[in-house]
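anyone seen this seq b4? input:
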Amino acid sequence: MINSKKITLSLFASVCLGGSIFASNITSLDTVTVTAQKSEEDVQKVPISLSVFDQHIIEDNSIDTIKDIAKYTPNLFLFNTGFQGLTTPSIRGVSASLLSYSSPVSMYVDGVPTMSSFGFSDGLIDIERIEVLKGPQGTLYGKNSEAGVINVITRKPNNEVKGKVFTTLGTDGKKEFGLNISGPIIKDTLYAGISYKHDEKDGFIKNTTTKKYINNKETDYSKLNLRYTPTDNLDISFITSKMESDNGAVDWALDKQSLDNVNVSSNLDGYSKPTTKTFALNIDYNIDNNTKVKSITTKRIHKDKVALDNDLSSMSIIHIFRDYTFDTLSQELRLEKKIGSTKVVSGIYTDKEDNDLSLVMKTMMDPTGANSHPQKLHSKTYSFFTNIIHPLSEKFTINGGVRYDKEKKDVNIKESNIDIKNEWNNISPKISLQYNIDASNMTYATVSKGYRSGGFNAHASSIIDKQTYDEESLISYEIGYKSMLLENKVKLNANIYYMDIDDMQVQEMPTPGVVYMVNAASATSKGIELELEALLADTVTLFSSFGYNKTTFKKFIDSGNDYSNNYNPFAPKYNFNLGAQYRNASGYYARLDLNGYGKTYFDSANENAQDAYELVNTKVGYETDDYDMYLYANNLFDKEHHATGYFNGTITAYREGREIGIKLVYKF
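predicted toks r here
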C-alpha cells in the first residue's frame, strides 16, 4: 500500500532542496496595485490589513470559488452551511446570522454588492484580482462592511487576443470544463470577453429509503464583458453574469456517522437550486490628469429555491420549502481628485432592495403549511462619503474620512395585518496615521467604525417589543506594519487589533421553537494577523499566514441563561496556511499547502463545536506557453472535518473527503 504521508514529505523536501540549486538567481517579489480605497495604490502603501490574490495567485492556489480564499486569508472564515449558495461569512470573529438577511462582511463583484449570506458564493472565472479588506470599512463601503469587505475584479479585455480552454477530471465524479476568450472587436475602441464554466460532482449521502445518493451537485457559470474606449480618457465596461446550480439535498445528516457511510431516511426529495444574475455598468472618465469621475450602476437578482426534510427521517415531521428572491439595484457616483500631493475621494451611493421571501413549513400539526405566510421586504439607502489622504511630511501621512448613511426599511406579511416600517441613520468615521519608515517599510495606526443593518422579526407578536432590531456597530483600534525586506525578496505584514461591539445582533429563544433577532449582547474582538512571503530562489517561494482571534460576549443573557464570556458562534479561534511552491524555467511545477482552523462553536452556549483540524493540498505539473498539465490532491490524507452538531446540536453538515484528479489547460 502506498504511504501518502511519505509521498507528501518527499515532495516538500524536493521543493525546499530545489531552492538551493538555483539560489544564485534570486529575483524580487512583484508589486500589486489595488483599489481597496477606491483609487489605485500599491498594496504595501495602504494602511489596511489587506490580503490580495492576483490572477497568477488565483491559478497557483487553485482558487475556484469564493470560499477557497479563506484558506489563505488570516481571520477570514466562510462557513459552508451545506446549502449551495448559502455561505456564512466571518471576519475577525464577527459572523453573520441567517435570520437577519444582512452580513458584517460585504462582497463586491465588479461593484455588484452582496450583503447577506444568500448568494455569497459567486463563481470565479477570468478574474484579475481579489482583495480582502479586514476591519471596518464603513467610510468607503457603508452598511454591512462592519468587519470587512471582499472585492472581486474581472480582468479587462484589450487589444490582445487571448484565451484558454480547461478541464478537470477527478474522483467521485468530479467534472469541470470551461473556456474564456477576450480580444478586440474594433481595435483600440471596442473589446469583448466571454467566459463559461461547468462544474459537477457526485453526492456522498445515501437515502436508505430510495437507495440513492441525494446530494449531487452541478453548477454552470457564464460571463460577458464588453468594454468601450472611444477616447483616451473614457473607459466604459458592461459586465453581466449568470450562475445557476441544480443540486440535490443539503449536505446534512445525523451526527456521528463515518464519511464512508453517511445516510438519511428522508421521505422528501430535497433540492437546492440557487440562481444569481448580475449586471454592472462601470464608467471611468478622466477629466484631466488629476481629476476622475466614476459611475457604477449595478443590478443583482438572486433566487434561492430549496426543499429540505428538516427531520431527515421517513416521517413528515418538518418539511421546509424556501423560495426567496433578492433583487438589488445600486448606483454609486464618485469623484477622485488630486490637489497637489493630497488625494480626495468623495461620492454618493444609493440602493433599492425588493425581496420576496416565501417560506412554507409543513409539519404534522400543519401538513399543508397554511400557517406560513410569504413576506415582502423593501429597503432604500442613501449615502454620502468622503476620504482624504494627505501627507503631513515626508514620513507621516494622515488618512481620514466619514460617511453618512440613511436607510429605510419596511416589511409586509401576506394575509396578515403585519406591516412594519423603520429607518436608521448612521455616521461612519475613520482616522489613520501612517509612518513611512523608508521606501520599503511602513507602520500605521487606525481607529474606524462600522455597522450592520437593522431589520425585522416579521413573525413576532405585536404584543412583544421584538418586531424590530437595531443596527449593530463596532469601533476598531488597529496597529499594523508592512515591509519588503532583503531587496524585496521577503514580504512581511503584521497587525494587532481590538474591536468593541455594541448592540450586537444575536438570536434569542424566549420559548422553545421561537427564535428572534435582538440587540441583546455586547462583545469584544481582539487578535493578530501575520502574512509572510519569501523567495528562497528564482524557483522556490514559501508562504505563511496566521490569524488569531478571540471574540467573546461581554454581556449576553437569554431567557435566564448567561452567555457572558462565551465565544461568538462561527468564529474560529485561529486559522493558518503554510505553503511552498516550486516552478522552474523548464516548466516543472509543484506546490504543497497545509491549512488549519481552530475550534469553532456553533451556538451561544458553546455546547456544540467543530474541533480544530488541518488539511493538506498538493499539486504537481508541467507548464508551457501553450498548455499546462497538473495532478492534484485536495485533502490528501482524507481528514474528516465535519461541522458536528451545527444545527440544533443533532445535525451535522458533512464535508467531502479526499479528491484526486487531473487538470488540463490549453492557452492561446
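Helices lie at 4-21, 55-60, 138-141. The two ends are 41 Å apart (CA to CA). kinda curious what u guys think
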